[in-house]
Specification:
- The structure is a single chain.
- The protein has 169 residues and is mostly beta strands.
- It has a single domain, classed as Fimbrial-type adhesion domain (Immunoglobulin-like, Sandwich).
- Helices cover 0% and strands 53% of the residues.
- The protein contains no helices and 14 strands.
- The strands form two sheets. Strands 1, 2, 3, 5, 6, 7, 8, 10 and 13 form a nine-stranded antiparallel beta sheet that branches. Strands 4, 9, 11, 12 and 14 form a five-stranded antiparallel beta sheet that branches.
- A hairpin with a 2-residue loop joins strand 7 and strand 8.
- It starts with 7 loop residues before the first strand and ends in a 9-residue tail after the last strand.
Length: 169
């Protein structure tokens, strides 16, 4: 699975990932209990944003949506991304949807939505954002019903949606 091009830039900030590819390896259907869905092990990596000037921190993940709750993995699978343990300039922050700023987003990146770093109910600006990204992937069992080897992949990228903050703030 391809997540992003390392060191993507937006305005005065640079976004980087500890891993740009996640590999689940070979998934054998004989090793999976027949069920409605096959849940793959959670994968974790780190995301860092460094800015020259303080910036409001907001992120989105851009990929083909599977539904309103996740992104496409293969033809029928879904992956979900969650931001955890986020800090801006060493201060713990939570997340709110840019589309509904009064609601906590609990760090889940949803199709078509951006998450804004917040503390004490207000957006947070800073020079350094760090967060852990957890990816949970599931496939319908019948996606493993292939005669030979089949490659399943998902592609997407993180985008930093931030603006420099005027020096007076």
């Amino acid at each position: 699975m391809l997540l992003a091009t390392p060191d993507a830039q937006a305005e005065n900030c640079r976004l980087s990932l500890s891993q740009s590819h996640i590999d689940y390896g070979a998934i054998r259907r004989d090793a999976v209990v027949e069920n409605v869905a096959v849940v793959l092990a959670t994968r974790t990596f780190n995301l860092t944003v460094l800015c020259v000037e303080p910036a409001a921190m907001a992120l989105r993940f851009v990929a083909v949506p599977a539904d309103g709750q996740g992104f496409r993995f293969g033809r029928e699978g879904r992956l979900r991304l969650r931001l955890k343990h986020a800090q801006v300039d060493g201060r713990a922050v939570g997340w709110a949807s840019a589309q509904a700023p009064d609601e906590s987003a609990k760090g889940q990146l949803l199709p078509g939505q951006a998450l804004v770093a917040r503390a004490a109910g207000a957006p947070v600006a800073g020079r350094r954002l760090t967060a852990q990204v957890d990816i949970d992937t599931e496939l319908p069992f019948d996606a493993l019903m292939v005669r030979g080897e089949a490659q399943l992949e998902g592609r997407g990228s993180f985008e930093l949606v931030s603006q420099a903050v005027p020096p007076s703030q």
